[in-house]
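User: Teach me something about this protein's shape.
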Amino acid sequence: MPESQQSEERRPNTSDEQDTSEEQRPGDKDRPRRRQARGERRIVQLLEAAASVFCRAGYTGASTNAIAREAGVSPGTLYQFFPNKEAIAVGLSDRLLHDWRESHGQALAAENIGLPLDEMLDAVLDPLIAFNVENPAFGVLMHGPDTPCGIAEEKGVLGGAIFTRVEEIVAGYLPDAPPDERTRTATMTVTLFKAGLDLVMSHEGAERDAYIAELKTVMYRYLKPLIEDIAD
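Assistant: First, the predicted structure itself:
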């Protein structure tokens, strides 16, 4: 056999080798999914650490190094997911706002309007207070003096949405009251809640429960005479 033909016969089938090397090994297709799941868990870990640091130090007093230390990771790992502290705060606020909408949707549901006043206050206040107690970082980011610009804008939108729903609830109990009176009543109701919530959040245990009861009593005593006057 001519030498050239022998070398041609000995030449490996490169196309077959390429097909074999590019063939996907078992489990390869799951790797991106696993990486994504690990990344999502790391983001949750960092956001939970940020919530703790923001509660202790406030937004201005917090730092990315402190958040990384709280999460038990290096600053370099943190920067793989968030470029700066503001991005972390925005990410945390987005997650909290999602939970907030669920709890406030339950609290300010239209069906609560038909309840007796004391039951309505329980139905509205209990989930609102529970959310704030479980998520103290929400108050730090939404009501702190140093809130990042993007979160401050969201705060204004939320405040308007809450007031609208409270005004609708007030209108359900005071259907014949003039619009300006309903607006004043809604304003006072929201203001009383905010002031009472500050006291609730600054106490724990039995003392916190006592302030929750006091808040409900104050709001009941404010609203009950208004409802009775309209009824008369």
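Now, about its shape. The radius of gyration is 29 Å. The chain is about 80% helix and 0% strand. If you'd like, I can walk through any region in more detail.
User: That's plenty for now, thanks!
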